Amino acid sequence: MSKQQIGVVGMAVMGRNLALNIESRGYTVSVFNRSREKTEEVIAENPGKKLVPYYTVQEFVESLETPRRILLMVKAGAGTDSAIDSLKPYLDKGDIIIDGGNTFFQDTIRRNRELSAEGFNFIGTGVSGGEEGALKGPSIMPGGQKEAYELVAPILKQIAAVAEDGEPCVTYIGADGAGHYVKMVHNGIEYGDMQLIAEAYALLKGGLALSNEELAKTFTEWNEGELSSYLIDITKDIFTKKDEEGKYLVDVILDEAANKGTGKWTSQSSLDLGEPLSLITESVFARYISSLKDQRVAASKVLSGPQAQPAGDKAEFIEKVRRALYLGKIVSFPPR
């Protein structure tokens, strides 16, 4: 019986989409999820795909070519440790585990050393691009044993996004937790970018009373210049989105922002290294403040804040905000 070239553990949206991405490149993929129902759901929703379901860890591991290549897409933390522990009894020395979750880099360093001592290879891999990127081509940041990376590089390069120069958006970052460290910093920078955009919006909305259509037009123009980016691009579209009642979503959405911890980790690392990272750190605090909805509402009833003053020349004010946003993006990047 022929065996599969790679297996994916974890059939939530990221794991499912990465499995489909790999399958679309001509590979046959073993898939496994802790709950049988999720695996059955993925298979039922994707008839005709070369996804082979397994319902026990042993059968899943034994279905793979050696050295085995297993991509973990499970919840970071204890879930990752649990998944690794369930796999180990059935692995052979030289097999490769790839952790594609949003994992703290220190955990990756620990797992790498523990698994290396047992003869297994471990590649901590940052995956950026969200659900759509996972399906159509993410940016991939692998770290771990270089020789193990070489064994999985052909697959990673085939499923990755392609840069403007035609090269795949994947490169070996370095040993131990280097891949997840780079992904952590990438996410921290994104935290900063999102906060800068939110504050630019607040200035234009509060200082100029721009309509949502005017905001969309302004961000469209910005996206055609030096501010051109994925976040500016999607923000310009957000302003004109409406709900089922015809109301602009940006005006009715709850003003609370959650976080997955990577921004906090970036700030903590900067403190450990003695590196200034004020903008990204303040963007993390801004999310914390936004989550204190009840306290903010209570405070607004007893504290009278400043009122927005007329901003003067509209075009001049918009340009000042644009330039401030651009400067903020420069400041947001770590100094070295």
UniProtKB/TrEMBL annotation:
<comment type="subunit">
    <text>Homodimer.</text>
</comment>
<dbReference type="InterPro" id="IPR006183">
    <property type="entry name" value="Pgluconate_DH"/>
</dbReference>
<dbReference type="GO" id="GO:0019521">
    <property type="term" value="P:D-gluconate metabolic process"/>
</dbReference>
<dbReference type="InterPro" id="IPR008927">
    <property type="entry name" value="6-PGluconate_DH-like_C_sf"/>
</dbReference>
<dbReference type="GO" id="GO:0004616">
    <property type="term" value="F:phosphogluconate dehydrogenase (decarboxylating) activity"/>
</dbReference>
<protein>
    <recommendedName>
        <fullName>6-phosphogluconate dehydrogenase, decarboxylating</fullName>
        <ecNumber>1.1.1.44</ecNumber>
    </recommendedName>
</protein>
<keyword id="KW-0570">Pentose shunt</keyword>
<comment type="function">
    <text>Catalyzes the oxidative decarboxylation of 6-phosphogluconate to ribulose 5-phosphate and CO(2), with concomitant reduction of NADP to NADPH.</text>
</comment>
<comment type="similarity">
    <text>Belongs to the 6-phosphogluconate dehydrogenase family.</text>
</comment>
<dbReference type="Pfam" id="PF03446">
    <property type="entry name" value="NAD_binding_2"/>
</dbReference>
<keyword id="KW-0560">Oxidoreductase</keyword>
<keyword id="KW-0311">Gluconate utilization</keyword>
<dbReference type="GO" id="GO:0050661">
    <property type="term" value="F:NADP binding"/>
</dbReference>
<feature type="domain" description="6-phosphogluconate dehydrogenase C-terminal">
    <location>
        <begin position="179"/>
        <end position="336"/>
    </location>
</feature>
<dbReference type="InterPro" id="IPR006113">
    <property type="entry name" value="6PGDH_Gnd/GntZ"/>
</dbReference>
<dbReference type="GO" id="GO:0006098">
    <property type="term" value="P:pentose-phosphate shunt"/>
</dbReference>
<dbReference type="InterPro" id="IPR013328">
    <property type="entry name" value="6PGD_dom2"/>
</dbReference>
<dbReference type="Pfam" id="PF00393">
    <property type="entry name" value="6PGD"/>
</dbReference>
<keyword id="KW-0521">NADP</keyword>
<dbReference type="InterPro" id="IPR006115">
    <property type="entry name" value="6PGDH_NADP-bd"/>
</dbReference>
<dbReference type="InterPro" id="IPR036291">
    <property type="entry name" value="NAD(P)-bd_dom_sf"/>
</dbReference>
<dbReference type="InterPro" id="IPR006184">
    <property type="entry name" value="6PGdom_BS"/>
</dbReference>
<dbReference type="InterPro" id="IPR006114">
    <property type="entry name" value="6PGDH_C"/>
</dbReference>
<comment type="pathway">
    <text>Carbohydrate degradation; pentose phosphate pathway; D-ribulose 5-phosphate from D-glucose 6-phosphate (oxidative stage): step 3/3.</text>
</comment>
